[in-house]
UniProtKB/TrEMBL annotation, chain A:
The name this protein goes by in its record: Fumarate reductase iron-sulfur subunit
Presence of the UniProt keyword 4Fe-4S in the record: yes
UniProt entry keywords in alphabetical sequence: 2Fe-2S, 3Fe-4S, 4Fe-4S, Iron, Iron-sulfur, Metal-binding, Oxidoreductase, Tricarboxylic acid cycle
Originating organism: Roseospira visakhapatnamensis
Cofactor(s) named in the record: [2Fe-2S] cluster; [4Fe-4S] cluster; [3Fe-4S] cluster
Highest taxon above the source species: Bacteria
Organism phylogeny: Bacteria, Pseudomonadati, Pseudomonadota, Alphaproteobacteria, Rhodospirillales
TrEMBL record, chain B:
Membrane found in the keyword field: yes
Coiled-coil blocks: none
Highest taxon listed in the record's lineage: Bacteria
GO cellular component labels: membrane
Taxonomic lineage: Bacteria, Pseudomonadati, Pseudomonadota, Alphaproteobacteria, Rhodospirillales
Organism from which the protein derives: Roseospira visakhapatnamensis
Name the record gives this protein: Fumarate reductase subunit C
Spans traversing the lipid bilayer: 25-47, 67-87, 108-129
Length: 259, 130
């Protein structure tokens, strides 16, 4: 195993003593196979125990260790040191307030997520004795990709629209709304549209596409949002077609819903 | 200890300078300005045509000025960039079922280019160029 030395430039902020964030540089001896998170853990264990950051699984599943690495939102457990130069700049995720050091405040997302009802909504629950809701392989395929979201917030840190207007519901919450809209067991699309098709929902997205490029789980929130725009536009036209439109909408949704 | 979260402001006018991804997005958006200006020029041509031969000839002379030529070269470059970026983005919005999956993205993109070529060909035949 070869060893090399890197310089980690970390944005520090202590709310008790600092007026504004500042950079601190650490010299870290690293192993070839280390990721950025390993180097940060080395700092915490050997150089400066006051450094605060979030992490848990170290395998791109928990979504806790998202940071800006050389200006790009990444999971620090998935960012290999060998892919960077000798000097690496680490900052907390963009567009979120800094709680302390690399820890950001996620309250905004936690408030938005339940508003899009990210769970199966039924007009009427089926009694348990009638058995489970069955799905065909394609019905699972339709939404599975969007269910892979780990709420790591890299997409919010990448999205300039969210940076400019924090009222925007944002990529991950909208992708999760789409995940349930596309689920054949769900009947809650109309309820979700009150939030997703409102001014701060899908129409705030101008399709920069950065969310999908940085997503570590290939969820493609940008795709989800464009598909929602298409469906919402279709609804708008169908509503204006009167009785015929209503019949088309009903037949489209009844074809989707497993009874 | 009370909380004191630090909010980093996003510069409202220079945010797109932060990385190449945002710059490419802005280039795509700015390209529509050139398409809009080109359309305005085209509409003006129709107006001149309706005003008679003198006005139409003056319009044609104006079109061959160096400034107009430079603008048209630029407008063509931006229109091509605009069209290709949007064509390449179509698979994200267009999901067409194919068996137990969707029509692959590259096929959707190629279909757009094919249709673009076909429509261009029909127009060239209609106006008698080929």
């Amino acid at each position: 195993m070869s060893e090399r030395t890197i310089e980690l430039e970390i944005l520090r902020y202590n709310p008790a003593t600092d007026e504004a964030p500042w950079y601190q540089t650490y010299t870290v001896p690293c192993q070839e196979e280390w990721v950025v998170l390993d180097a940060i853990n080395y700092v915490k264990d050997h150089l400066d125990s006051s450094l605060s950051y979030r992490w848990s699984c170290h395998m791109a599943v928990c979504g806790s260790c998202g940071m800006m690495i050389n200006g790009e939102p990444m999971l620090s457990c998935k960012a290999f040191l060998r892919d960077f130069g000798r000097k690496i700049r680490v900052e907390p995720l963009s567009h979120f307030p800094i709680e302390r050091d690399l820890v950001v405040v996620l309250d905004d997302f936690m408030e938005k997520l339940p508003r899009v009802k990210p769970y199966i909504v039924r007009d009427q629950e089926k009694p348990i004795e009638e058995g489970e809701y069955k799905q065909k392989p394609f019905e699972l395929y339709e939404f599975k990709q969007y269910s892979m979201c780990i709420n790591c917030m890299l997409c919010y840190a990448a999205c300039p629209q969210y940076g400019l207007n924090s009222e925007f519901i944002g990529p991950a919450a909208l992708a999760l709304a789409h995940r349930y809209n596309k689920d054949s067991r769900d009947e809650g699309r109309d309820q979700r549209e009150e939030i997703t098709a409102a001014h701060d929902g899908i129409w705030e997205c101008s399709f920069v596409g950065a969310c999908s490029e940085v997503c570590p789980k290939a969820v493609d929130p940008a795709g989800a949002i464009q598909q929602m725009k298409l469906a919402s536009t279709m609804d708008w036209y169908l509503e204006r077609l009167g009785g015929v439109g209503a019949r088309v909408k009903r037949s489209l949704s009844s074809r989707r819903t497993s009874k | 200890m009370s909380r004191k979260p630090f909010v980093r402001p996003v510069p409202a006018t220079t945010w797109y300078m932060r990385n190449g991804r945002y710059l490419r997005y802005m280039a795509r958006e700015v390209s529509s300005l050139f398409i809009g200006l080109y359309m305005a020029g085209l509409a003006m041509g129709l107006m001149r045509l309706a005003q008679g031969p003198d006005a139409w000839n003056a319009y044609l002379t104006a079109l061959s000025s160096p400034l107009a030529l430079v603008f048209h070269v630029l407008a063509f470059a931006f229109a091509t960039y605009h069209a290709t970026t949007w064509f390449n983005a179509t698979p994200k919005a267009m999901r067409i079922r194919w068996g137990d999956g969707y029509v692959p993205g590259p096929t959707v993109v190629r279909a757009h280019y094919a249709l673009w070529g076909l429509v261009s060909l029909v127009i060239l035949v209609l106006v008698g160029v080929i």
